[in-house]
Amino acid sequence: MFIQFTRNGAAVRLIDRTKELAVLDSARAEALSGRTRTVLIEGAAGCGKSSLLAAVAERAADRAVVLHAEGTESESGQPMGLLRQLLDDVPADGRPQLPDPDAGPPRPESMREFCTWLHGFAAAGPVVCSIDDLHHADELSLQYLRYFIRHVRSARILLVAAATPQHGSADSSLQSELLRSPASRYVRLRRLSRLGVAKMLDADPELSRQHGLVEDLHNISGGNPLLVRALLEDCRAAWPDTAEPRALRPVTGGLFAHAVDTCLRRSGRAAREVAAAFTVLGGLGTPERSAELLGISVSAAARGIAALTSAGILDGCGFRHPAARAAVLDDFTSAEQAGLHRRVARLLHDTEPHSTAVTGHLLASAQADIPWSETPWATDMLRDHAERLLARDEPRQAAAALRLAYEACSDERIRIDITTRLSTVLWRFDPRRAEGLLSSSLDIAEGGAPTGPQLGSVAHVLACQGRVAEAAGINDRIAESANRTGDTSLQLPELPGSRVLTSYWDVPDAADRSAGTAAERVLEQSVLTDTTLHALQQAVRALAHSAQPERAAHWSQSLAEEAERRAAPGWQALFTTLHAEVLLRLGDLRGAELQAAAALDVLPEPTSGAFASAPTAVLIRAHTRTGQFAAAADRLNRPADDQLFDSIHGPGHLRARGLYHLATDQFHLALGDFIEAGRLLKRWHLDRPVVLPWRTDAAEALLRLGEVQQAERLIQRQLASPDARHPWVRGISLRTHARTVPQEERPALLGQAVEELRRSGDRVELAQALGDLGRALQSVGEATRANTMTRRAWNLAHICGARPLCEETIPGRASRDLTRERTLIPATTAVDSKLSGSEQRVAALAAQGYTNREISLRLYITVSTVEQHLTKVYRKLKITRRQDLPVDLQLASAQGS
């Protein structure tokens, strides 16, 4: 059953309040007949006390004078505030003279005078005194009310007061007085039952048809009428069309959240603080823990919990719904929440030192303005937690734990270890920040007195991140300390065959045929982690410079995909860059462009940091090779990172810029870039032509400037290096060397260069050498062979997308023009008729410069099968070597395969 009345012109429904209204009606009738009655209505915030008071006032309004007062927390300290508010509805000339509140404790005669006045006022007509939120009343007003209850017996007065019982404020003595008085009545308001919630829902036929809504409403609100009404209003706002069943989800920041906030404020400060404690304690919340956390008694905490439970916000020691918890959190600043988390962490550490909940609260306390001196144990706990997070592939959370561990630590030496580790973790997803953080670690190391192992750790991470200049500096510092103290244990362990720490970026000797096999073994047996990252990276680089560079493409792509699956964009960018470098080395210019751009795309700050220069350099070189000079210039015009030329990526950037200058006829600028790249590499003991052939680059610039002798000296030095045994190094060196010798000697050198470059797998360099060979043959009168080599060079350059090289090889000749002038090559129809489909595909790829291994990978056949097909092709076409293969052997079908 429900009862409806009006308040301020609006209809108010009282659900399941029949018994309570009966008590109030009986007390009202007795008061109207001349017997003073007092009623205390108790109930949790939001349970309808105010509505019940309004109902009493509404029913008595036609026969009695209604005086109303409402206690508030902000006015609870104003003496006589509640009593003065109660008298506001009395005409000024008829009000009693109240004593000055500053005159000290009230005298009995003053309270007697007030009661006499009230008795006389009621003689003119019945009086209803309605007091809401009595628990916020000031003490002086309460003394007057207690005196009234004890001494006024036969007047037409009904005093109705509403209070929240668990507040524990000064109204407890008044409550005792009321319970002792035979003229008093007590009404306890409870939350609504499920049936009561259903009755509230009956007022909205559309919502009442929603299946399971009553159950959801009751579970979330606990039957608190205020919360139920707020939830219903949220439903109406969120469900404009209620034809279909909907799940009940309180709206974030909606009326439900405001209703929870209202309940908290009306329940008093202690209840609000207990609610805040429970938001951070979670499932660990108990009266004892919340009391210790808040610095209050257990009984006070228990009263707060009882008030929140009565209001339907808590269910035992947990929130009924996450939306209620969120509403409580909204009432506190982030700093206040963080402070609670720090206190919870300290509390739990004292009782459960190994609980993972402790570190969770420490992390949530990042904004707390509480000295870390109170939690000296936090540093080690947070560092251990970070390692557990890394084992679960949660690097961002691990980084947050390490940052907080750094803040909690006062020992500068330990801070170096934390910063170094944090830099390694950050590399997974933000290389730029990792580089910056390691710089701060380096500053601390240089300013303090770190141990040898700490310096070694910093140097190792610096070297792995490519900052070889700084790593070498620390290595020298350790060596000097060892020489000065005689303590050789401080020296860094060197890798086999290396001289300094910077050799972390070296590659195996060209003569070491087992290097590629060893690299693949590392790649097959290692799992991608922080500790294996550099080893895997170096294994890919070793493969890229071995006799099987295409295997490096496979592994770099595989590792990049693994990094993407594990949400490690820093690692993904690293291996994607390696993939781009390998593709560029193989002459796949378009693929190199795509991969380099992809590497930059996954970086949070793609235009900054020394590492970002690595994929950028690949893009610049690919753009330059494909004739996209404006795009290359755009990349070069962007500011370089301050640490770029202290890192391994600096020489690569210089070479990319130099090649652009060379292609755009800025020969002096190009020469300067190549010489500076060489200077850096020599300084770091990394001068390896197989990695960066700056001497042949510089020789090219010198030849364009007419400095033949200087160019020859550089080329000879490169040919004398151990790396000259590598087909790629030897091939590009011989090709450049051919330009320094008389014309009649050039074909032989270029023929050797073509053979070496064919073995290396670099199709762009092979096209360059074939073009040079065609011109050299033309100059000595071998026109037929010259035309064949030229067309092969053009076709290979065209397949790679090297437009400037196409133009250099056959100026002004578009791809469609090439088919019109093939007088020196047998007709394709005649050739095709002699070969099977498989033989045509193998021969076409061989004519384009692919190695047997590359053909096998491309056509998914064995190398032995490739060799067999080529043997048959040679026999059918009556040729003896690969160079004599016609270039127009169904090129389109070969590309399609």
Description:
It is a single chain. The protein is mainly α. Among the domains are: 179 residues, 3-Layer(aba) Sandwich (Rossmann fold); 130 residues; 86 residues; 56 residues, Orthogonal Bundle (Arc Repressor Mutant, subunit A). It has 45 helices and 7 strands. The strands form 2 sheets. A 5-stranded parallel sheet has the order 4-5-6-3-7, sandwiched between helices. Helix 5 links the parallel strand 5 and strand 6. Helix 31 runs antiparallel to helix 32. The two termini are 82 Å apart. The relative contact order is 0.04. The N terminus and C terminus are likely disordered.
Number of strands: 7
CATH top level of the domain at 3-98 and 106-188 is Alpha Beta
The N- and C-terminal alpha carbons lie at a distance of 82 Å
Structural class: mainly alpha
What fraction of the residues are assigned to beta strands by DSSP? under 5%
| Count of alpha/pi helices | 45
Annotated CATH topology of the domain at 3-98 and 106-188 = Rossmann fold
For the sheet with most strands, the description reads: 5 strands, parallel
- List segments where confidence is low: pLDDT < 50 over at least 5 consecutive residues: 1-12, 489-501, 814-829, 890-897
Please list the strands of the largest sheet in the order they lie side by side: 4-5-6-3-7
CATH architecture of the domain at 3-98 and 106-188: 3-Layer(aba) Sandwich
C-alpha-based Rg, rounded: 44 Å
Keywords: ATP-binding, Nucleotide-binding
Protein name: Helix-turn-helix transcriptional regulator
Pfam families: AAA_16, GerE
Organism: Streptomyces dioscori
